[in-house]
Amino acid sequence: MSWHILGVGALGSLWATRLARAGVPVRIILRSSQRLADYQRAGGLTLSEVGESSLHAIPAELPEANTSIQRLLVACKAYDAEAAIARLAPRLANNCEILLLQNGLGSQQAIAERWPQARCIFVSSTEGAYREGPLQVVFAGRGQNWLGDPNGGSAPVWLDELDRAGIPQIWSTDIVARLWRKLALNCAINPLTVLHDCRNGDLLQYREQLAALCQELGTLLEANGQAPAATDLQDEVLRVIEATAANYSSMYQDVRLGRRTEIAYLLGHACRSADALGVAVPLLHDLHDRLRKRLSLRGLPTD
Ligand code: NAP
Fold it and tell me: From 10, 78, 133, 135, which residue has the greatest number of CB atoms within 10 Å?
């Protein structure tokens, strides 16, 4: 059975090339005839890791192709994922599986509700990749992938294909808690790096602000039934800041490069969820407002 990969950017290319290299059947789905022609001209996807580059001529197609899709890996940004799937929805087999690699929360739930015939598997990834050019990806940081089905059920048999491809994986029985925890860390760190225009490590001078944000985030996690994800949140925020002190956060980099952020699925999701549950989070709302103003000043979408 073939994997179909939708969204052939940084992470999608990283998964596609590793699967193809291991001999696992995989096809990539490009958004337009123009992109398909560019791909055919390039001769495939280029993966660079530890200074070595390799070209992978993976079969490619358009969303409108007419073969059925049994297993779909969606590696678009959170704000593109649902619309991208909608274009190929007629091809989804009744009992298909959709793996969702998006950061934050909200897009996965919307997709799971819209296509109830699919088994949606949420993925939380700490691997790092970036695009060096069109159809060229650099594997920048080793990490882990946690996969899980929020509705429970057993681990899929194809996890061994990921092992064979060298894609690290752990089957998680609490994937939503894991995504909430990652979202909370992101909300505490990333917006402040944009607002203070600084590296992660510079946030150590705003410890009180961080502590107050973590307090609100902890309350929000608990209200969402995710109390374990709130445990020692502030300690982990400080640990992450120290361990990544010299780095610029992903949101900071998006803003600097004039790219749309995934704010609606991170801080935006936290604020919407608090409002829906009637939890007061004035600091998170204030942060959200200030961040949206900053994005607007830079001419970037605020959602
Ligand atoms: P990316 O490099 O921007 O790739 C997204 C890809 O989706 C682009 O190639 C884009 O095509 C494609 N796309 C968008 N709409 C499409 C459509 N309708 N049909 C077909 N393709 C479509 O993003 P990324 O960095 O890989 O991130 C993907 C997700 O993984 C995000 O939620 C991100 O937060 C998460 N994540 C990324 C990393 C990382 O290191 N990169 C790590 C952890 C998690 P175009 O090129 O044509 O625009």
Answer: 78
CATH number for the domain formed by residue range(s) 3-173: 3.40.50.720
Rounded distance from Cα 124 to ligand 1 centre (Å):
14
- Cα–Cα distance between 38 and 44 in angstroms, integer? 9
- Residues of CATH 1.10.1040.10 domain(s) within the chain? 177-298
pLDDT digits (tens, 9 = 90+) for 149-175: 999 999 999 999 999 999 999 999 999
Distance CA 240, CA 246 (A): 11
Q: Is 106 in the pocket of ligand 1 (CB under 6 A)?
A: no
Res 110: pLDDT: 98
Is domain 177-298 annotated with CATH 1.10.3210.10?
Answer: no
- For the stretch 34-68, pLDDT in tens is 999 999 999 999 999 998 999 999 999 999 999 99
Which of 27, 71, 182, 292 is flagged as catalytic? 182
Q: How far is the CA of 195 from the centre of ligand 1 (A)?
A: 24
Helices (H), 146-262: 159-164, 175-195, 207-223, 227-230, 233-243, 250-256
Is 182 an active-site residue?
yes
Parts of the chain belonging to CATH 3.40.50.720: 3-173
Is pTM beyond 0.85 here? yes
